[in-house]
Request: fold
Amino acid sequence: MLKFFATLSLVLCFSIAANADQQTMFDFNQEYQKATEQNDAEAQYHVGLMYADGSYAKKRQFKGIENGFEQQSETQPDYIKAKEWFEKAANQGNIAAQHSLALLYFNGQGTKQNYSKGIEWDTKAAKKGDAIAQYTLAMLYYQGTGVKKNYFKAKQWFAKAAEQNYSDAKDHLIVVTKKVNAIVAKQQAKKKQASDNDCGCG
Reply:
């Protein structure tokens, strides 16, 4: 369980880190203006990201005559604000925002931990082809975290993510396929035994 929480946190960090280079081109005030005045879903997602990694507050601050200007180096993420903006973008169908919102629910960041809500949002993103959302769902079903363990559903989502060359999904797909095959073989053996018993062939 703890290992999976760590995995989810890493996925959230990855989601934000993957956009780090892109974020450097964003101006918080410009994105905020587009997000509020134009109701731009992409801008709303960007604002959410900046709240999630603390970059919304990174600005030059005057520290006094002796110290001059100093770059603010440490800022705290504001997950409550991040959730608010991810939610706005997610409701407009932004896939990345849907997955990011799901992760906040999974990790209990900016909101009470709620796997049902997280799965709901990640399923929307996964169905639209988001490989990371597909992989996250697969892990939930594979480990039975926040949902009943289901190797068949896990295999389905690992396969979809693997089709998009998501390397971790490919590795897990091999493992879960063996488990699924073993379950199917066991079920078939039981059916055969029941059939044999019914006809007196055994």
User: Anything to note?
Assistant: The longest strand covers residues 60-62. DSSP finds ten helices and two strands in the chain.
